[in-house]
Prior knowledge:
By secondary structure, the chain is mainly alpha-helical. It has a three-stranded mixed beta sheet with strand order 1-2-3. Helix 3 packs across helix 5, helix 7 crosses helix 9 and helix 16 runs antiparallel to helix 19. The longest helix is centred in the C-terminal third of the chain and has 32 residues. It is globular.
Amino acid sequence: MTNDSNKILSETIKRLLRREAVSHLKKIVNKSHAADLSLVFRSLPVENQRKLFDLIDDIEKKSILISELEEYTFLDFIEHLSIDECVELFNYMPADDVADLIGKLPQERAAAILEKMDIEESEEVEGLLRYEDDTAGGIMVPDFIALREIVTAKEAIESLQKEYHDVEMPFYLYVVDEFNRLLGVVSLRQLVVVKPNTPLKNFMTTDIFSVRTDMDQEEVAKLVARYDILAVPVVDDQNRLVGIVTVDDVIDIFRREATEDFLKMAGVGDDFVETQSIFKSTRIRLPWLFASCLGGILASLVISHFEGGLLKFAYLAAFIPVITGMGGNVGAQSSTIVVRGLATGRIDVRDFWKVVLKQQAIGVILGVIYGLFLGGVAHFKYNHELTAGLLALVVGLAVLCSMSIAALMGSVVPMVFRKLHIDPAVASGPFITTAIDVVSVFFYLSIATTLLG
């Protein structure tokens, strides 16, 4: 559904809820996709969420709806479901989704649900919970097709029809030895074009990409995207096949990582705050803004140091906002490009000097262009002053310095952070822009003091 369609659906459901038109609600709810209903749930109180939920006839659709909810909506809603209801819903979900949801619940409630689940399913979920959330082991699906290398194509097809008919990703058949160690992979296309009595080992692909259980989920996503594969096998430290990461999980990873990066770069934490309380949202944003506050204090100290010059040439103050603003924008642009490049794998820390020099060159070129432009503006505006020519030179040089240094900081800082294994996104929030403000003011007033006396 488009945004407009979702808005219409949400408004229609709210109107029918007010009228208590149960029969119409039931028709709409059962015709709508679970993913669209999850968006409607965000704007409804828990009581109305429960009313809609009870109107859904298909238990599998209910389970999809639960898995699509945002974390805060899910936690609020799940409190109003009994343990038995939770168990019934989780029985219709893939093990990796169940592990993800149970991992968000309070420990006591999670333990109670696991205790009531089927032993086989609960063991699968508990096995996934042993891994960190943001690793390949934490996001993998433990259901996959694994066959011995001596199995023939005909036997493999029979296994698909009998044993593996409900596997989430049936496009790849993984070939293992007697110790479950990964040997190769066979696609469905290969399976149906060879002769029925051909063993898998004769036509399997041995040049296979696999990931370890402890690999970061972002690296896994990059691997799947780079090689255009629908799933990647996950192996333990002995190369035993333990699960697969599917392309739908990769899409979720990219979406979460991109959201997290942009929120960090905006200086508002690393998770959604729209559904949180005012107090919690304020508490999250408070420490991030401290950097801006501290930078403002430093900038004011720099300005006060040059107070005598500003009193003598008051018109210098008119250009402080534009110089700091231009520098801040260039720094933000450079850091955004580098952070996203690092996140998507298009930029590597090994390309440090190449990336830095490129951004520096761009900063210098932009600085020259806007330095000439703003210098011209300064000369035109204050042409009645004896120092108009020097003022134009001061403003031009200050813009050049500000934008060049901003481009340098915007590219160097994220790269250094990545090298130190610190999330580079945090460098692109208030930290870089604040530092650039201080540096820009210092260079501007230093140049003015030198040239204007």
